[in-house]
Amino acid sequence: MLTVRFDEAYKVVLNEREAPSLKGNEVLLKMLRLGVCGTDIQVYMGKNKYMKFPIVPFHEGVAQIVETGEEVQGFSTGDRVVVEPLLPCGECRPCKIGRYNACDKFTCLGVQTDGLGSEYFAIDYTRVHKIPQDLPLEKAVLIEPFAVGVHAAKRENVKDANVLVVGAGTIGNFTAQAAKVLGARKVVITDISDFKIELAQKCGIDSCVNSSHLPLKEVIEDNFGSWGADIIIDCVGVKSVFGEILNAAGKATTIVIVGNYKEPVEIDLTKIQRNEINVKGNITYTKEDFRDAIDWMSSARICTEGFITDAYDIEETGKAMENAVKASLKVMKTMICFDK
What is the pLDDT of residues 213-230, one digit of tens each? Predict the structure, then answer.
């Protein structure tokens, strides 16, 4: 079978390897579509601290089941599925209390272990989710990042709340849309990319603001008035931006951190303490988030038009990664196809 491998930073190799053998609790997947996200780009550039070269990349994928192990329940050959790429230990405290996304020892496909970048992939059947057969592949490949947005929007009760989402990339856009589905009073999203702001407008976000030359404090005042933002969701993960977020946060505001920070951030604990500002961490998703993502995507409650900005055959993975790095402000989601 054809396999993509990153041998070193910026080096993509295509090779042939044997199809995987199947264990009793596994399903054999024929991969159909892959999504390229920011984590994949970090791995490609050798800038993800959890990975080692060589690595088979990618963790966002939609596939068809072509074989099932004897212990598999609830799945049949021919089913279409999306992959939940986190592999938790099942034994630590977070796993035991149902928050396995915060597992002490979890690994992620395409980062700590080989990912979905092969024609066939064998995986424990509990790590896949069935999707409607008629759901377009171009939507299905977006379910994993949408599940991230669903989880982020659920970290604080957004119903009837004023919500500011900082960052209008794939995760930020999906987080804003999820907040609207969950009943937020008003959702505002900011970014420095006109392209991403225009896409957010097409997706029906209440207010979409290019914040290149407008402080977040003014964005909040202009859109929420004296009441301010109840919840600020950081989907950027940039040190300087977090300082601005904290400065803009009013009393009793909740800040949810979704973006992955690459360096430590100094924060004013006095402001947090005296103003009862809640700061919440956020990491990936749970099965419930995946189920909601599939349900909302399948029932057309979520806009995905314009999200797939580039599509490449699997043989063009090197070109796909190169272009994803170069055009970050004008790329939402790059898709890689096994059967384009």
Answer: 899 999 999 999 999 999
